[in-house]
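Tutorial sheet, problem 5. The two components below are modelled jointly, 469 residues in total.
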Amino acid sequence: MMNNCRTLSVNAVSEAVAALCVEANLHLPKDVATALELARQRETGALASGILDQLAANAQIAAAQCLPLCQDTGLAVFFVELGRDLRLANGADGAGGADGDIYAAINEGVRRGYAEGFLRKSVCDPFSRANTGDNTPAVIHLRLVPGRSLRIVYMAKGGGSENMSRVTMLAPAEGWEGIKRFVLERVREAGGNPCPPIIVGLGIGGNFELAPLLAKEALLRCLDEPNPQPDLRDKEAELLELINDLGVGPMGLGGRTTCLGVLIKTAPCHIASLPLAVNIQCHSARHGEVLL
Amino acid sequence: MKKRLTAPFLSADDLSALRDLRTGDSVLLSGVIYTARDAAHQRLLGLLAKGEALPFDLRGAAIYYCGPTPAPPGRPVGSIGPTTSYRMDSFAPALYERGLAASIGKGPRGAAVKEALCQSGGVYFAATGGAAALLASCVKEAKLIAFPDLGPEAVYELKVEDFPLLVATDAQGGDLY
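Model answer (structure tokens):
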């Protein structure tokens, strides 16, 4: 069995994570840039159009001058798929024993990336508010998968939009209508706070802790990629239309462009429950991935 | 049309220009402003409660709700966009009462802040959230002046040129949100 295993050094993991953090914070994903551009073409209000122009200029300046797109370079969130036939070694060349710690390797990458990339360290103790100084610990969701590779997906999740996110446990009878009502009310109440135009990630089903995880993972799908579940595509389109009808607009100052996309992920749930998590993402939807 | 203003607002002319601003006006702000966000505000209010001096003169001052990224080599500061303002709502009225002229952030303010603006003749400006690299190009100098242990939440004195802002809430009770 051991012969089928591949060995990867923890240092290679840390280096890849560091590069991922820097890259994602400087460059807006193409799908997001395109969605912003299309929204700009449709937007008619002078104030709203002016803000969308500023965001386009910002992305250009960030890339050209190697400056982070946003000063909030986020809490580092990772979705990691670790091949079960991959061993992590402490030594640079696989020496030093195959007992490398994936969590430590990722956190070391965050430490290096946030230092080398001049990214903001935004992590602190919840009570003393003392900054940890290196943006660790990251939030790491690890999944064991077949194979010998390691896939690391990173998102820089800002605090402003995360603060506007909510979890609720609806009654099953409330159904899709209840879900729409809750989401619309949330987006309306959030107003300009989460930096609209936003992207709305919905986790529907699962339980109290799974729903928000689904919502966060939903946010990683590209805006131009259809939902893999065909029955959810119409729901996403319907809700997107309804959210944009709210007129919240860019930065909450009115306009057609409140939301760039609604992304839904579902899981089966208890017969008594309809868990719903609304994870709001700002327009600076920074994420990226690496396969090792 | 964009109005050009300079901070701090000290002269009678400066203060009347501030009072004349109306919700929706575009402003290009130059001069000196101070960064302060959640943790710095707690400390500022703590100093006031103890009757101690603040690290900068509040009279006519503009506070920018912001925690910038570290300055890369050759730049005064890194990316520097606004943070969400409602979190500073519980601190802002006491500062406006003591001479603060303007705050800069993003998102709507609560009733107590609006009341404080009407009372003091101050203003609340909105900057574009997430336009942090663009805004960095308007910052010419940055100096750390207080609470270095707060890291990104420390207070910086910034020299800005043509910093693009919108009047979100004015001294007449007008509110853009």
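Marking note: Chain A touches chain B at residues 47, 51, 54-55, 57-59, 61-62, 65-73, 118-122, 129, 131, 133, 159-160, 163, 191-193, 195, 251-253, 282-284 (CB under 8 Å). Full credit if you identified this.
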